[in-house]
């Protein structure tokens, strides 16, 4: 499901999710802070309530015993005027001495006195003490020591937010909480739409433009690629989209360069085909002309003229054969039909072997052919057949060029190899000469 979403949709989803988490966190913090603030205010406003009640009501008699009648009358009045408070009498050690709770509501008989002492010493509100009606609950309270003739007899312990307050607060909080949730969802939806719009127009706009350019380059002609290649890369290296765009521009430039090289290669190929067609047509026309002359005028030609025409026709046929062989080898090289098979061999021996194939032809044409290898030649790593073909073509072309001349024509083969461990300018050369 996530993989099918676009970039802007993913960004909007992430932003909305973050807003939801932030809204939940803000609501939790707000509710906790509001509860803390309300508890602190209630405790501060009612901090002297226990002391005032003890000053006005004789909760203990002259012997320090609990005055049950006075205590019951006080409980009834408080339940009438302020039902949220709950009164308890504690011993100096925190044991529960008296209460006004209905039967079965008291969950513990002993109260931790550390919060009571902290409250009496003026600690910062809110201070939470044990709730006798809950096994582990803690609530804000008011407390006052009960002294008779200067002796501590116990404590008046008042829970300021009792069971009745909890029930009323729970109903009010449900209504308030639903209101907060609805407003939060509304704000999240609003900010989500704004975030989606910003993501669409600001974040994804460069990506969409780049996607459109690449799509046009893939569907249109080479002109779209060259238009993209002509753009200047942006120097904003910190922007990932700009870096990606620069890489596409570099790729477009490489494709444009390759296209230009292919176009130039195709033009050269067409020129070569035109030239080779002309080179083949000329000797073929000459060959056919002499053969036609021999056919039509055989009775009027002398033996010397026949021999001369046949020699010329043979020479033109050899030219056609030579050009056809070169064209075939070129086609094989261009289409990968020939793969070099590298091996180490002696260049001097190869030259000598090739020269031996031309000895008979050279003698027939009265051309002197001999090999002059100055010093031992190093072994080379190459394809023997390809090097042999190159040397054969060189000697064949030289022989054909000097076939009508007498004398001692010379030709040469030279090669360079970069010495190991030297730079490109420090080279050691070896030269062999075949004359």
Automatic annotation (TrEMBL):
Ranges annotated as spanning the membrane: 177-203
Catalysed reaction, written as an equation: ATP + protein L-histidine = ADP + protein N-phospho-L-histidine
Composition skew (Basic residues), residue ranges: 424-435
SMART domains: HisKA (SM00388)
Xref: InterPro entries: BphY/WalK/GraS-like, HATPase_C_sf, His_kinase_dom, HisK_dim/P_dom, HisK_dim/P_sf
Signal peptide as annotated in the record: 1-28
PANTHER family documented for this protein: SENSOR HISTIDINE KINASE GLRK, TWO-COMPONENT HISTIDINE KINASE
Protein name: histidine kinase
Organism annotation: Klebsiella pneumoniae
Gene: phoR_1
């Amino acid at each position: 499901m996530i993989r099918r979403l676009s970039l802007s949709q993913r960004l909007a989803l992430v932003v909305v999710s973050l807003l939801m988490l932030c809204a939940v966190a803000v609501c939790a913090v707000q509710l906790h802070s509001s509860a803390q603030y309300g508890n602190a205010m209630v405790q501060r406003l009612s901090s002297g309530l226990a002391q005032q009640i003890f000053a006005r009501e004789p909760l203990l008699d002259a012997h320090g015993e609990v005055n049950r009648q006075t205590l019951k009358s006080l409980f009834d009045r408080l339940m009438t005027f302020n039902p949220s408070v709950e009164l308890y009498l504690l011993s100096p050690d925190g044991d529960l001495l008296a209460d006004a709770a209905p039967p079965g509501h008291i969950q513990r008989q002993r109260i931790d006195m550390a919060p009571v002492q902290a409250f009496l010493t003026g600690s910062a509100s809110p201070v939470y003490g044990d709730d006798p009606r809950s096994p582990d609950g803690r609530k804000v309270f008011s407390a006052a020591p009960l002294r008779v003739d200067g002796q501590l007899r116990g404590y008046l312990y008042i829970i300021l937010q009792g069971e009745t307050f909890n029930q009323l607060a729970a109903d009010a909080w449900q209504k308030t909480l639903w209101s907060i949730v609805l407003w939060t969802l509304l704000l999240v939806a609003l900010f989500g739409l704004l975030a989606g719009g910003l993501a669409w127009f600001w974040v994804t706009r460069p990506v969409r433009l780049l996607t459109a350019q690449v799509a046009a380059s893939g569907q249109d002609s080479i002109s779209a690629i060259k238009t993209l290649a002509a753009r200047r890369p942006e120097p904003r290296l910190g922007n990932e989209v700009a870096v990606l765009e620069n890489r596409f521009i570099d790729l477009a430039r490489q494709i444009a360069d390759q296209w230009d090289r292919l176009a130039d290669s195709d033009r050269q190929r067409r020129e070569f085909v035109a030239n080779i067609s002309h080179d083949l047509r000329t000797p073929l026309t000459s060959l056919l002309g002499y053969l036609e002359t021999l056919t039509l005028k055989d009775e009027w030609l002398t033996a010397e003229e026949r021999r001369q025409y046949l020699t010329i026709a043979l020479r033109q046929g050899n030219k056609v054969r030579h050009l056809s062989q070169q064209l075939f080898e070129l086609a094989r090289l261009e289409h990968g039909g020939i793969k070099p098979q590298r091996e180490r061999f002696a260049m001097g021996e190869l030259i000598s072997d090739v020269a031996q194939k031309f000895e008979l032809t050279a003698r027939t044409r009265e051309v002197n052919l001999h090999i002059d290898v100055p010093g031992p030649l190093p072994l080379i790593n190459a394809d023997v057949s390809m090097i042999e073909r190159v040397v054969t073509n060189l000697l064949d072309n030289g022989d054909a060029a000097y076939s009508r001349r007498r004398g001692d024509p010379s030709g040469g083969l030279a090669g360079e190899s970069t010495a190991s461990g030297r730079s490109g300018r420090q080279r050691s050369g070896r030269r062999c000469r075949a004359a």
